[in-house]
Amino acid sequence: MNTTPAATRPVLDRSGSRIDHLNVAVPDLAAAVAFYEPVLASIGITKMLEIPAIPDADFPAMTGFGLANVKPYFWLIDHGTVGANMHLAFTVDTRAEVDTFYAAARAAGATPREAPAIHTQYHDDYYGGFVNDPNGINLEAVCHHPEDDEVTTQK
Q1: 127 lies in a domain?
Q2: Helix/strand/coil percent split, the chain, to 5
Q3: Overall domain count for the chain
Q4: First vs last C-alpha separation in the chain
Q5: For residue 41, what are the domain limits?
Q6: For the purposes of burial, counting CB atoms within 10 Å of the CB of 74, is it exposed (0-12), middle (13-18) or buried (19 or more)?
Q7: Is residue 88 included in any domain, yes or no?
Q8: What does pLDDT average to in each consecutive run of 10 residues of the chain (155 residues)?
Q9: How far is Cα 2 from Cα 4, in angstroms, rounded to an integer?
Q10: Facing residues of 108 across strands?
Q11: Phi and psi at residue 100, in whole multiples of 5°?
Q12: Is the entire prediction scored with pTM above 0.85?
């Protein structure tokens, strides 16, 4: 728990990161895509590219997701082993999007971890909802904006 008083915590830019793309190994690509496609679509992330396996090159099949008009940045990689304690958090612009993501994930078969709520241990406006995907990966949607100061970005 963050015990630093809110008034003395540094104000951070929570708008983005320097991560270009992320590969997530899954044991069954088709099953993972069937789960992630509707869940990610709930927050404007769509399936953009499917790359077939190249067995002679030991290159697994993969499916890439991203925002419209942006390159894929979230990749599911076939025939992999899910790592222990894996946690993936997707940033959204509104608390309603957190709620929508959580509901879509539950409808797609995710197991609940924590229903959408404020988590002041991170910062005063941290609104997140957490589920486990069918492979046990901890998924989260998070909004870093106060309810009255939510932003809109192009999706």
Answers
A1: yes
A2: 25, 30, 45
A3: 1
A4: 33
A5: 23-148
A6: buried
A7: yes
A8: 53 67 95 98 97 91 93 93 90 96 98 97 95 97 84 46
A9: 6
A10: none
A11: -65, -45
A12: no
Nearest to 131 by CA among 89, 69, 70: 89
Chain Cα centroid distance, residue 144: 14
**Which CATH number does the domain housing residue 64 bear?**
3.10.180.10
Q: Which candidate, 84, 80, 102, 104, places its Cα nearest to that of 32?
A: 80
Q: DSSP string of 38-106?
A: HHHHTTTEEEEEEE--BGGGTB--EEEEEETTS---EEEETT--PPTT-EEEEE-SSHHHHHHHHHHHH
Residues 40/27, Cβ–Cβ less than 8 Å: no
Please enumerate in sequence order all residues whose Cβ is within 8 A of that of 151, keeping only pairs 6 or more positions apart, or say none.
93, 145
